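User: Modeling request: complex.
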Amino acid sequence: MKKTLLILCVLVCAASLVLMGSGKKKKGAAPVEEEAVEVPAITPGTQINVFVDGGINIVPFELFKDEIKEKSGIEVVVNPVSQVDVYPKLVNEFIAGTGAFDIVIYPPGYLPEFANNGYIIPLDPYLGVRDPKMDDIVDSFRKLYCEYGGKTYSVPYDGDIHIFYYRKDLVEDPTEKANFKAKYGYELGVPETWEAVKDFAEFFTRKAGKKLAGKTLDKDFYGTGMMLSRFWCIYEFIDHFASYGGVYFDEDLKPMINSEAGVKALEDIKYLMKYAPEGILTYGYSEIKGSFLGGNIASMLLWTDLFKFSWDKAQSKIPGKIGMSHVPGTMMDGNLYFKNPLPYGRVMCIPKTCKHPAEAMWVISYMSAEKSIDFCFDPRTGEDPFRYSHINAPDYLAKYLSNFAGSDVPVKDCEIYLKAIKDALENGYPDLSIPGSAEYMDSLAVAIQAALAGDMTVKAALDKCAKEWAATSESLGIDTQKVIWKNLTAVWKELGLI
Amino acid sequence: MKRNGMNTDVSLQPKGLFLDGRKRVAYAMVLPAFVILLLLAVGPLFFMIINSFRAWKLSVPAPPRFVGLKNYWILIRDGRFWNAFSNTITLMVIGIFVQSILGLGIALLLRENFRLRSLVVGLLLIPVLIAPVVIGVTWRLLLHNEFGLVNYYLGLLNIQGPLWIQSNRFWGLFSIFIVDTWQWTPFVALVLLAGLESIPQQVYEAADVDGAAPFRVFWKMTLPLLKPMFLLIILLRTIFIFKIFDPVFIITEGGPGVATESLSLFTYYIGMKHFDIGYAMSAGVIQIIFMILLANVFLKYTTSKKVV
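Assistant: Request completed. Predicted assembly structure:
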C-alpha cells in the first residue's frame, strides 16, 4: 500500500510540474504585437462586460447603458469591484485569462505594467470603429494616461487632479479676518504655501462651544482634513512631496523618496494631524469628503469632483461656500513653487482576452467622446473633467449643476472651477507609472502610516521605504526598470511636468 | 487460513500492486477520492513548496527562475515577517488564555438549570455562525472613533474612548483581540459545557460525601477532568488564530503601517498586492511547518496517557 501511495504522490507531483510548466509560458507572455487587424462591424446584441470600481464610478454606465443599447444594440453589463481590490482582481483575471471582461477601467499608473505583460491590446487598429476624439483630450492626460511605447492603449474615463479646497465663507468673514491678522500678523487669505496652510489649520481648529464666523459651534471644528488611511495616504504625501521638488527616483533609479522633499512632506502631514479630526489615520476619500461637505473642516486637498458634489443638497451642507486654489507649495528663490498631482485617474482599456474588441471600442469611444461631458458634470458620479470640451464649458456645467442645487449655480463659480483645473493641469505632477507601481506605493503607504502612528521616525520610515523600493526594482529587473523610467521621465519633461 | 470468510493467510497475500480481487475493488472504490484529495491538497502543497524556491513576480513578464533558498534567507531577515509572527503569537497566547477563562465561566453558569437555558445555549452559537467578514465590518463600525457605538456609550459614562482602530499597535491589536474573543468565546464555552456535562455525577456525590468544599471540588476534580477539553480548545484555537485574516484585514488592514499585520495578512499582501509569488509561498511554507510542529506537540500530548 505504501508503494501505491508513493506512486500516486509521484504522479500528482509530476502533474503539478506539468501544470507549472504550462503556466510559465503564459506568465512570460510578451507584449501584444500590433497586427494588421481588420476592423469588423459591430454586432447588435453583443454583451460587453465592464470591470470598474464600484460606488459612484459605476454611475456613468448606469446612466447611459440604455442609450448605448438603443443606439448600437450593444448590451453593457457592469461588474463593480471594491476600489482597493482593482489591481489584485485585475491581475488575477489577466493571469487566469478567463475573458470575463471586455472593458477594464483602472488607474493609468498600472498601464505600463499591463501593456508590458501583454494583458491589454493597443487600440490603434480599432480607432476607426468610432472616433474617440483623442485630440480633444487634454494633452497631459492623453500622453500620460493613454499612450505607452508609441501606441494608444486606453481612452480616459476620469481625469483626476488634486486641488486645494477651503471654506470661502470663513476666509471672507470680517471677524475671522481681523482675528487672524491680529494673531499671525498677515491677512487671512487662500494659503499658498505649506507654512500658510499650517497657520490656516491652526487658526480654524476650534472646540465645540466656540464661535466660528459669528456662530456657536455645536461640535468640534477642524482646520484641515487629510486622507491618511492605508490606501489613500500616498496621495496626500505626493501632494506635499511634489511641491517640495521631490521626484520618485534619480536617473539611475535610485529611490529619492527619502530625500529632503520626502522628509519635509511627511513632517508637514504629521504636524497638520494636530488640526485634523481624531482618528484621521482611518480617513479615506469618503470620510474626508463627508466631513468637508458636512461643514466640519475648513480646508483640504481633494479631487476636482468635490466642487460638483458641493452643489448637491443631498450630500452637502455648504453649497456655494467652497473656494478652490492650486495645491500649496513652497517659496524657492523668492518664487512660489507648487505642483498639482494627478493622482489615480481612470482609463478604459480592452484586455487581450476580449472576444468583442470592436463592440468594446464602440462603447469606450461613445462613453469617453460623447457622454463624458455629462457624466463628468453630474454630481452623482465621481468622474472629473479630462477633455478640452469639458474645461471650456462653464455655461453647460452651471446648467447641469443648477438642476441638482434646485437654484441657479453662478456661471462665474463654474468658470473659476474649470480655470482652476486648467491651471492645475499646466502644473501637474504624475503618479508613478512603471511596472510594479502598486508594490512601490504599498511600501510607501506602510512607511507613511508607520511614521504618522509614531512607530518610526519620519526619516527612518522613509529610509526603510527607499530600501524596499531598491529591492523592488532589483526584483523586477533593474535594467528594464531603468529604461522604462527613463522613457517615462522623458515624456514628463516633454510635457513640462518636471 | 480463513476466518469469517476472509483470507488472513499472510503468505497468500499478493505483493505490491498485485492485489487480490476484493482488495482491488476496495482500492478502486477509494481511489477517486484519494486522487481528488491528492490533487486538491498534496498538489497545491507541492506547487507551493517548489515555487518557494523560485523568483516569480507577476508584475513583470519574466518567467519564474530557480533561486534556491534565497526567498527563505530574505524572509528570516525580514522585520515585517517577524512583526507579523509576533502579532499572531500575541493574539494566540492572550486570546486563548482569556477565551478559556471566560468560556469556563460561561460553561459553569450554563451547567446550572434555569429557565431559557436551552435558548441561551442556542444563542451562543450565533457568533460562530456569522461570516467573519460580517463580524469584521460590524465591529469596525462599532469601534469607529467618530460614529462608533462603543465610544458613544463610553462618552455617556464620561469616559473618553480610545482611537481603537489604527491609532497604534496596542489599540489595533486590542481591537482585533476583542473581536476574536467576542466571536470565539461562545465556542469555547460550548466545548467546555459538553466536557462538564460528561463528568459523571457520582464523582461530585463522592466528593460531597467526603465533605469537600466547592472550590476544592472545582480545583481538584472539575478542572483536571476538563483537561482533555482544554487541550482540544488550545489545539483548535491555535490553528484558527494562526490563520486569522478577516478581522485583521477588515478592522485595521494590518495598520497603522504594518503594526497589526498577522501572518496570513502579510502573506496576502506579498502575494496578492505585490504579486511576489515566490516570496509569498516561502512565507506560506514556513507557516505550514510551524503549524505542523505545533499540532504534533499538542496531539502527542493529548493522546498520551497522562492527560486523563
